[in-house]
Amino acid sequence: MFFNAYTNYLTIDNSLISYGTKGIIARYTDNVNITYSVIHHFSDTGITHEISNNQTNKYITIGNTTVANCPDGIECIIPRGARTNLTIENSIFNSDSMPYILDIDYAYGGSIIDDVSYSDLYSLNGLDFDSENWIGSNGNISADPLFVNPASDDYSLSWLSYPDPVDKSPCIDTGNPDEQDPDGTRIDMGAIFFFFDAPPSAPTNLTVTPFRDNPELTWDANTEPDLDHYNIWAKYSNYSDPGFWHKIATTTGTTWTDNNVQTPGGKHPDIIFYRLKAEDCGGNVSNYYAGPVWILGDVIYWPAKQAVAFVQIPNRYALLRNFPNPFNPITTIKYDLPEESYVELKIFNLLGEEIRTLVVGNESAGFKSMLWNGEDNKDKSVASGVYIYSFFAKSLESDKDFHKTRKMVLIR
Are residues 245 and 217 in the same domain? Predict the structure, then answer.
C-alpha cells in the first residue's frame, strides 16, 4: 500500500503503509503531517517529499511514526531556490540495510532546515554522516528498538520481563518528556506505545455456604475497570473417586449458586472442590483464588489453598458412636444436622453430673464432629471410667428436634 499525493496539505494519521517501491510520495505539497503510522518494507524509500523550483516554507512533520526495512527512510528532493522544513520527533527509523535516514537531493541548490529530536535512528550497517550528527543530542539515540516480532510485521515495542528493565526496549518512555502516552507514562518513540496489559488480581474473600444441595459461592468484586467476568471450576468427588476439574460456570456477578451438584456419573458427591478466576476484556486471566476460605457452618478452613471443599448435607439427625472407644486421652464424637439447628453436646458422669460442655448454640446443617480430651469444664483431667455424652438438637427451620445419649469409656 502507498500514498501518492498532489495536494496542498497531506495528513496521514494512525495508518499502516507497507510493501512496494515507495511508501508515501508527497509531490509539491505545502504541508505534510505524518503521525502514529507504521511504514515498512519498501525497496526504495519510506517517505518521499518533492517540491518544485523556488518553493519555500514547505513543511514535513513526522511524529510518533515507525519506518522500518526501507533503504532510505526519508527522501527529500529540493530543486533550485527551494527550501523545506523537516521536523521529526518521537519516531523510529530502523532497518538492517538503511544507509540513509534522510536522503537529500541538493542537485539544484535547494536547502533544508531539520529538527530531529527524541527519535531512534538505527541501522545494522551504520548511519550516514548527517544522521550520526543527530545522535546524542536532543534526546536522539541509535539502538535496536527491540520490536516484538518484525519478521511477522509486528512493530510494537517489546518488554518481556516487565517491570524488570533487563530487556526493556530503549524506545519505551524515552520520547519527549513533556508528552505522555494514553496510559499516563512518558511518551514512547514510534507509532505503537507500550502498554502492559496486566491480568486481573485473584478474587478475594471467597465464601461457600452449604444450602442443602445447592452451595452458594460469594466473593469480593475485583476493582479493575476492564474486568469482564469470573470463571468457576468444580471437582465433584466421592471417597472412592477423586473426580476431575471442569469449568462449570461464567458469571459477571459476585454470587453464584451451584444447582447441579452431582458427579459425572450422576451420583451425589461426598466432597466438592471449587476454583475461581477473574478474566478481563482482553482475555487475561488471574491466578486462582488462593484462600483462606471459610465454609460457613462446617468451619472447614483451607489456608493458602486453591480449592475449597463442601460437605454434603445429611438427610436426618444422628449421634454416632465415638471413636476410639475405649480411648486415652482423646476421642471424636460425630453428629449429623439435616437443618440449621440449636445444638447442645455435653458430657456427664454416671451420677448425672455435667462434666464438660462441648457445644451450645446454633449450627448450620452438615456433618459435624467434636473432640473430647478427657477434661472437665475447668480443664482438669477426669478419672478413668464410664461417661455419658448427650446430644440435643432443635431445628431452626422446622418443628423437628432430636435427643440421644451414648456411653464411652475413658482408660488412663
Answer: yes
